[in-house]
Design brief:
The chain is an alpha/beta fold. Helix content is 46%, strand content 14%. The longest helix is centred in the C-terminal third of the chain and has 31 residues. The structure holds 4'-deoxy-4'-aminopyridoxal-5'-phosphate.
Length: 402
């Protein structure tokens, strides 16, 4: 007997559950295109060379202890993270209007930001795009906010539903929070153009909508850290306020180290000081203080211009490999004469392609071809290589011609 005997079995996480199923499949031809983690051309996880070097330096430094970090994390890491996303010459940083706290990767940054808003902001509704990363609605609801949606993706064009987005944000109550993917929208791979971003910015500022940016892929979309940060910087340049959740999981390959940051750009330096004091009250009872190793690695790389440059080269190589897989997959479907317009595969950017395959086709491909992806038809391009790509193209062809 157990006091927990009445507990129901919970379903697997829709994204992480794909890997659970994949691991159970004995087939030698199986392919995991579920979770968004980078793989090399050989299908192996990658630790960046510059990360290995930084870790070696840290290990060899006898002056390093394992003391607790402050509640807000490693101060140098926080400064460098704000500079990375907002730009070294950001006026908001120079005017001391930015408060940054180290958090548990992107997820933890979103959660801390959400709880701060639930406690201190007058409007508790957060608008999230349809579709979005599956964890978003859960994070914000548990943080105490009410999640509502705005139109984002148009299945007919496999592109942005810009008019729908504008309509929905126009009718949102004044002051509502709006979650924006900074670049490489997950799961669709569809981003607004710079022109559209500018219109979104004007609309949001005119209605005092509060931007909450989620930046999980800086550098991964285009291969350039600055280019991928451009939309965010447009919003900072107008002097307005915003929240920013940053993750180093993908762009530095630090997934399991859980290293990220929450920044809040405030209207003035004295507001920033008070906001920081309240962020500490959110964090302290949640996990007391964040981990030490990950941010030490990041700070080691970001503070040193040579290591920084090496990072950008390795980052671009990852982005370029993904972009080349897009072209290869597109070409492979074309050469098979697979019915349909597949140009969205090369138009979409970032880690994922939103294939447009329906859940039945996804199930068919798992059953018959041992290819694993989320049921919404999202595939992680990072899991593809020259060896498994023909198998995927065969599977897609079979699924759509069946
Ligand atoms: N936001 C988005 C859009 C993501 O895709 C991810 C990673 N899948 C995250 C946030 C957060 O990931 P992590 O907590 O590992 O940094």
């Amino acid at each position: 007997a157990s006091v927990f005997a009445g507990i129901a079995q919970a379903p697997e996480d829709p994204i992480l559950g794909v890997t659970v199923a994949f691991n159970k499949d004995p087939s030698p031809v199986k392919v995991n295109l579920g979770v968004g983690a980078y793989r090399t051309e050989e299908g192996k996880p990658l630790v960046l060379n510059v990360v290995r070097c930084a870790e070696q330096m840290l290990i060899n430094d006898p002056s390093r202890y394992k003391e607790y970090l402050p509640i807000t994390g490693l101060a140098e890491f926080n400064k460098l993270s704000a500079k990375l996303i907002f730009g070294a010459d950001s006026p908001a940083i120079q005017e001391n209007r930015v408060v940054t706290v180290q958090c548990l990767s992107g997820t933890g940054s979103l959660r801390v930001g959400g709880e701060f808003l639930a406690k201190h902001y007058h409007e508790h509704t957060i608008y999230i795009p349809t579709p979005t990363w599956g964890n978003h609605p859960k994070i914000f609801t548990l943080a105490g906010l009410t999640a509502r949606t705005y139109r984002y993706y148009d299945p007919a064009t496999r592109g942005l539903d810009f008019n729908g987005l504008v309509e929905d944000l126009s009718s949102a109550p004044l002051g509502s929070i709006v979650l924006l993917h900074a670049c490489a929208h997950n799961p669709t791979g569809v981003d607004p153009t710079v022109d559209q971003w500018e219109k979104i910015r004007q609309l949001m500022r005119s209605k005092s909508l509060l931007p909450f940016f989620d930046s999980a892929y800086q550098g991964f979309a285009s291969g350039s850290l600055d280019k991928d940060a451009q939309p965010v910087r447009m919003f900072v340049a107008d002097g307005g306020e915003l929240l920013m959740a940053q993750s180093y999981a993908k762009n530095m390959g630090l997934y399991g180290e859980r290293v990220g940051a929450l920044s809040i750009v405030c209207g003035s330096a004295d507001v920033a000081v008070r906001v920081e004091s309240q962020l500490k009250l959110v964090i302290r009872p949640m996990y007391s203080s964040p981990p030490l190793h990950g941010p030490s690695v990041v700070a080691t790389i970001l503070r040193d211009s040579e290591m920084f440059n090496e990072w950008t080269v390795e980052l671009k190589a990852m982005a370029d490999r993904i972009i080349s897989m897009r072209q290869q997959l597109f070409d492979a479907l074309k050469s098979r004469g697979t019915p349909g317009d597949w140009s969205h595969i090369i138009k979409q950017i970032g880690m994922f392609t939103f294939t447009g395959l329906n859940s039945e086709q996804v199930a068919f491909m798992r059953q018959e071809y041992h290819i694993y992806m989320t049921s919404d038809g999202r595939i992680s391009m990072a899991g593809l290589n020259m060896k498994n790509l023909p198998h995927l193209a065969d599977a897609i062809h079979a699924a759509v011609t069946k």
